[in-house]
Amino acid sequence: MEKSTYLTTHPTNLYDFIHLSVMLLDLIPTYTDEKKGSLRDVWAKSIEELSRDQDQKKILSFLCKCGIIAIDEKDKKVHVGVPNEFVLLQVKKFFHKGLKKAISVSYNPQFTLDYHVYTPFQRPNNDLQIDMKKLLKIKLPKQEAKELKNNTSQSSKLASQFGIKISPHYTFNNFVTGAHNNFALSAAKAVAETPGKVYNPLFIYGSVGLGKTHLMHAIANHILQNSPDRNVLYLPATKLIDEIISAIRKNKLNNLMRVFDDIDVLLIDDVQFLADKDKTQEIFHNIFNEFHMKNKQVILTSDRPPKELNNIEARLKSRFALWLVADIQKPDYETRIAILQSKLAAKGESIWFDLLTIIAKSIKNNVRELEGALNIIMTRKTITGMELSEKDMFDCLKTLGYKVDNEDKQVIREITQMNTRSIMSYTKIVEFVATYYNISVEDLKSPKRKKAITQARQMLMVIAKKHFSWTLERIGDYFGGKNHATVIYALNNFTKKIKHDKNLSHDYNVVMEQLER
Ligand code: ADP
Ligand code: MG
Predict the structure, then answer these.
(1) In whole angstroms, what is the distance from residue 154 CA to residue 151 CA?
(2) Ligand 2 centre and the CA of 214: distance in Å?
(3) What separation in Å is there between the alpha carbon of 309 and the centre of ligand 2?
(4) Does the beta carbon of 180 sit less than 6 angstroms from any atom of ligand 1?
């Protein structure tokens, strides 16, 4: 494979004139299959390399819609396309160093990295993306083997005894962190690393749908992965109550207590439900004390802090608050976007960023509902087979009982107006150029190749590209359905010509003055 074939049209001449990112992205459709294959190869090797040091789920979340859009042998640059500004920030923050190293191993150590965001008019180019899930699975067997082992462990026997399984889908890797849960997450990780040694008990509270249960399972999974022989029991408080009541009724409380004796780590979810259950509270108090005395880890969650747990004995409440009480708040806007992105990536899907913001702006208090909205939207997309629109987003929010925010509607209106304004002011420039050269607008949009017409048309194409960020496709459409290659040729040709042709340069400046008015 000859490396110099990666970037056939070297854009040096266009650097001053046209935004490089837009240019590179627009060149993609002109690539041959072989060239796309080569770029994918380099990307796949780099991702494999990256996954040696970095978290695979995180790679999948943020890099699955990215790809190498060009390799510039002259400037020694690898150009990576990213789907939106948010992913760009995350990629720079989490992966830049690692990617640079990976590219240097998989391709060439002298190359630097550059990132380019797909414009709203461009879709991520699937041809340059790789099946990252498949690629990364190559390395998952180890983990799967551990999961398999867990199934035969004590914990798994306990799980089937109580009918409650620890879900392998809730892990630290797919738990998105933000200011709202940072503290709880750090505490959870510390406890998962060294159960019984740091914060015992750990009490996590927060309102519904903010990730308490997810964190509990993540702790359990982490402990079982590190030490599959540990005896870990996860129980919702309601289940604990049922078990205790049933044991009392069957006169088998001693048996149940023996089961707890063998447990190393106990996780009880939603302890607010112990309210008013006096007998259960008394028994749980005993279990709790045993665990505490033996330095065995207890983790509890609740929808409110211990002090506010009504109708739970004071001595039990004070036990709950014995060590660390960590809260989970509502996620901020950026984190809500990150959660949506991460859930989409896990499904191998994507939604245009501006549409995601509509959901993230409206659903503020509950991550479960954020996920629910995504499911509704994705189902709608599958059923209709159409690209999603703002209307789909607003409909989904209405289905979930959300009043659509006027502010959101305003944002959408502004995007639409910006587009309309862009077309209106561009049309004015086209009319000005036509008058200036004494030709008609129809001629400009026709296939006519008279010198004056061609020159004016090329100038207008460059303006559309540089000042209006139009894609090649949109420019081609405007000028009577010209294809990519024609537009690229026109842009190149005009750029070259203007450097030597003083008259043309003068004319261009006159038009520019018009634009700046
Ligand atoms: P809670 O127990 O606090 O009511 P859950 O743990 O059941 O909430 O979370 C509800 C849903 O939201 C789950 O599907 C969970 O995976 C998801 N979720 C919550 N917080 C996060 C987060 N920070 N990152 C990823 N998913 C989250
Ligand atoms: Mg829960």
Answers:
(1) 8
(2) 7
(3) 16
(4) no
What tokens were used for 42? 């380099």
Half-sphere exposure of residue 344, counting CA atoms within 13 Å on the CB side? 25
Look at residues 157, 162, 182, 161 and name the one whose alpha carbon lies nearest to residue 172.
182
CA of 371 to the centre of ligand 2 (A): 15
Along the 517 residues of the chain, how does pLDDT read in single tens digits? 434 334 434 444 444 434 566 677 777 777 888 788 888 888 998 998 888 777 777 788 788 888 888 888 778 888 898 887 778 888 888 899 999 988 887 787 778 899 887 654 455 456 788 888 777 765 544 444 454 444 557 777 777 778 788 888 899 999 999 889 999 999 999 999 999 998 999 999 999 999 999 999 999 999 999 988 899 999 999 989 999 999 999 999 999 999 999 899 999 999 999 999 999 999 999 999 999 999 999 999 999 999 999 999 999 999 998 899 999 999 998 899 989 988 988 887 778 777 888 899 889 899 998 998 888 888 877 777 777 888 888 888 888 888 775 655 665 555 555 555 666 688 889 999 999 999 999 999 999 999 999 999 999 999 988 777 677 777 888 898 888 788 888 998 998 899 899 999 999 998 888 876 6
Distance CA 263, CA 290 (A): 11
Q: Which CATH number fits domain 169-327: 1.10.3720.10, 1.10.600.10, 3.40.50.300, 3.30.870.10?
A: 3.40.50.300
**Residue 341 CB less than 6 A away from ligand 1:** no
**For residue 167, what are its two tokens?**
């879900």
426-515: CATH number: 1.10.1750.10
The residues pairing with 72 across neighbouring beta strands, listed in sequence order, are 77
Q: What is the CATH number of domain 14-136?
A: 3.30.300.180
Pocket of ligand 1, candidates 60, 62, 208, 210: which has the most ligand atoms within 8 Å of its Cβ, to mutate?
210
**Which CATH number is 348-417 given?**
1.10.8
Domain positions in the chain are 14-136, 169-327, 348-417, 426-515
**Residue 269 phi, psi dihedral angles, 5° rounding:** -95, 135
Q: Which residue has the tokens 């305003």?
A: 410
Beta strands in 202-302 (DSSP E): 202-205, 232-236, 265-269, 297-302
Rounded to the nearest whole angstrom, what is the distance from the C-alpha of residue 208 to the centroid of ligand 2?
Answer: 7
DSSP secondary structure string, 152-213? Answer: TSHHHHHHHHHT-PPPTT--STT----TTTHHHHHHHHHHHHSTTTSSSSEEEE--TTSSHH
Which has the closest alpha carbon to 84: 366, 329, 360, 331?
A: 360
Type of residue numbered 44: A
Q: Is 103 exposed, middle or buried (0-12, 13-18, 19+ CB in 10 A)?
A: buried
Asked whether the whole model's pTM tops 0.70, one would answer: no
